[in-house]
Amino acid sequence: MSELPLRPKDYKSTVKPVWCPGCGHFAVLNALTKALAHLGKSKEEVAMVSGIGCSSRAPAYLDSYGFHGIHGRALPLATGLKLARPDLTVLVAGGDGDGFSIGGNHFLHACRRDVDLTYVVMDNEVYGMTKGQASPTTPPDWDRSKLTPHGSGLRVFNPAAIALASGAGFIARAFSGQPNEIARMVAAGIEHPGFAFIQVLSPCPTFCPEQTGWKKVVRAFEPQPTSDPQEASQRIHLDDGFSTGIIFQSDVQPRRQPSAGVGNVEAFAEEFAL
Hints:
The chain is an alpha/beta fold. Helix 1 crosses helix 7 (179-191), helix 4 packs across helix 5 (104-113) and helix 5 crosses helix 6. The protein has helices spanning 25-39, 58-61, 74-84, 96-102, 104-113, 159-166, 179-191, 229-238, 262-271; strands at 46-50, 65-68, 89-95, 118-123, 170-175, 196-201, 219-220, 243-249.
């Protein structure tokens, strides 16, 4: 007798999320489980890797393989896992601080190497777990932090532009208020044969209550997606950061992906200077 298909709730662990009430990360977690159920993945096929931060608690909340790593190092950890276990669907969870600040260099090279990972960044434009400091995506005039009482004055990091310039083959932006859309993008990212980057605008009601207004300004990219890097670049740079959808999906096959076997993994790692 065959096993019944898993439902989204079947992918959740018994550990209850400790995110603040109203945090957008709850919706992202639900979207991840919907995507896995839609693709019919078994729990043993999935591994989630994370770094440090509110969003990086995600591996504990999924009933799959998981690794809670150190700050900014989720992507190299996930790359090593995928090289050693190419049979696994490897998801990476992070935030704007973990992924774009201390992990920024790893982000560039993960895009460049194009290893088959799906990286979901829950971007709330603030360091939430460490009590509300400015992050790389924080607006320059945001003055709620005691560390930057007059705003940081720094230009914001543009994740989609950096991902495109660094060679990512799949780039998308979503909003936590639209979990079904997130699930669709995550499923598409998993099925994409290379590195997939999904930026999720995920409001932090505790330190950035003004972000609750995002639901009134997000809208879909039209048309979408494109496989032309120049067109994708124009879309990204002409946008205010609140358009959602799959922005870019390359039709060029990624470089050779690893196959099982220690020798193959070592050769692949040497080729990519890992």
